[in-house]
Each structure stands twice: as structure tokens, then as C-alpha cells.
């Protein structure tokens, strides 16, 4: 079995297949065997559904260190009027040159790795709040099938100073993040 894919994964991760399947919620029977394929498919489908509808606020499901599920993508604002308004108010602060550039920058910000100064949480309603303390960029999006972006802006530009930007973020955390 030393040449199998499972053995290679075990060697690279330092964990047994049983430990890995237990971590992601796939149970094994008393002999350590995986469940039958149909049962495994149902468990995996349920886990994926829960990741979208009951997203964690700290665990990186994507493998990109974004803390967001890999199957979700921020794509658009809810209405063109919302996009028009947000573009006019916030584009200069985030360096966007047109509305599509503004949407792309918002999406990229939401999907880029957190880095050392990034913070993110997801509310029980599926709202994603993301902030970078260094750049002071801030975004809110809905983890819905449309990938709806609610806002994207540079808080330092919007609030006047980095200290006020960080204070605004702290207020958002206290107001919207569930304990």
C-alpha cells in the first residue's frame, strides 16, 4: 500500500486516512472502513450544503486562506442603482477606474487571502464582513447563490483616519458578529 494515493496523502499530511475523514465528518465503521459510496455521497452533499447555508466564521473551507467556502463567489451588486451609487461614493478610495473594475476589485478583495492584517466573519444570516487593517479596505457581501456584494470601500478614505477606520470595523464586529 506504500505506493497508493492514500499512503502518499498520509505521508504528506502526517495524519492517517481515518483521522482525516474524521476531521471532515465522514464516519467510519468499527473496523475503520469508509461508508458505502451512496452514504458517503449523501454525507458529502450535506456537508457542502451546510458550508453554504451555515458557514463558519473562522475555518478556511476554500484552501485559499480566505475563510470562505470554495464554491462561493462574489459576483455582483444587487441592483445597478446600488452599483452606481457605491461606485460614485467609493471607487476613488479603492482605485477603481470604472464600474466593472469596482466590482472586480470588490470580488478580488473578498476572495484574496486574509494575510496578516485581514479579518473576516460570517453572520448567521450569511453576510460576510471582511476588513484589512493595513489597507483599510472593507467589504460586505451575501453568501447567496448570486454572490451579491453589498458594499466595498476604503474606510480610511470614508472615515478620515486609519484610527477611525479601525474603530468603525470594531463597531461592526460588536454589532454583527455572533459570539
Number of strands: 5
Chain oligomer state: single chain
Global morphology: globular
Rounded average pLDDT? 75
State the strand order across the main sheet.
1-5-4-3-2
CATH topology of the largest domain: Nuclear Transport Factor 2, Chain: A
Q: Quick one: CATH class of the largest domain?
A: Alpha Beta
State the helicity in percent bands: 40-55%
What count of domains describes the coordinates? 2
Structural class: alpha+beta
Sheet with most strands: 5 strands, mixed
Would you identify the regions where 5 or more consecutive residues have pLDDT less than 50? 51-64
Termini Cα gap: 45 Å
Instruction: Report Rg.
Output: 20 Å
Order of SSEs:
HHHEHHEEEEHH
- As a percent range, the share of strand residues is 5-15%
- Going by CATH, the architecture of the largest domain would be Roll
In DSSP terms (H or I, runs of 4 or more residues), the helix count works out at 7
Walkthrough of the structure:
By secondary structure, the chain is of the alpha+beta class. It has 2 domains: 5-53, no CATH class; 76-176, Nuclear Transport Factor 2, Chain: A, CATH 3.10.450. The protein is 45% helix and 15% strand. The protein contains 7 helices and 5 strands, in the order H-H-H-E-H-H-E-E-E-E-H-H. The protein has helices at residues 5-13, 17-23, 37-53, 80-94, 99-111, 155-159, 162-176; strands spanning 76-77, 118-122, 127-132, 137-142, 148-154. Strands 1-5-4-3-2 form a 5-stranded mixed β-sheet, sandwiched between helices. A hairpin with a 4-residue loop joins strand 2 (118-122) and strand 3. Helix 4 crosses helix 5. The chain is globular and about 60 Å long. It starts with a helix and ends with a helix. Mean pLDDT is 75; it is low at 51-64.
Amino acid at each position: 500500500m506504500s505506493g497508493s494515493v492514500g499512503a502518499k496523502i498520509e505521508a504528506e499530511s502526517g495524519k492517517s486516512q481515518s483521522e482525516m475523514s474524521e476531521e471532515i465528518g465522514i464516519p467510519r465503521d468499527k473496523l475503520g472502513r469508509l461508508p458505502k459510496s451512496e452514504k458517503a455521497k449523501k454525507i458529502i452533499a450535506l456537508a457542502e450544503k451546510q458550508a453554504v447555508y451555515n458557514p463558519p466564521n473562522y475555518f478556511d473551507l476554500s484552501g485559499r486562506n480566505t475563510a470562505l467556502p470554495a464554491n462561493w463567489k462574489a459576483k455582483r451588486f444587487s441592483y445597478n442603482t446600488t452599483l452606481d451609487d457605491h461606485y460614485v461614493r467609493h471607487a476613488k478610495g479603492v482605485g477603481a477606474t470604472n464600474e466593472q473594475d469596482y466590482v472586480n476589485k470588490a470580488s478580488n478583495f473578498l476572495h484574496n487571502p486574509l494575510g496578516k492584517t485581514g479579518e473576516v466573519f460570517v453572520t448567521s444570516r450569511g453576510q460576510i464582513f471582511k476588513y484589512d487593517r493595513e489597507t483599510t479596505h472593507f467589504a460586505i457581501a451575501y453568501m447567496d447563490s448570486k454572490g451579491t456584494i453589498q458594499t466595498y470601500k476604503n474606510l480610511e478614505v470614508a472615515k478620515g483616519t486609519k484610527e477611525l477606520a479601525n474603530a468603525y470595523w470594531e463597531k461592526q464586529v460588536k454589532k454583527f458578529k455572533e459570539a
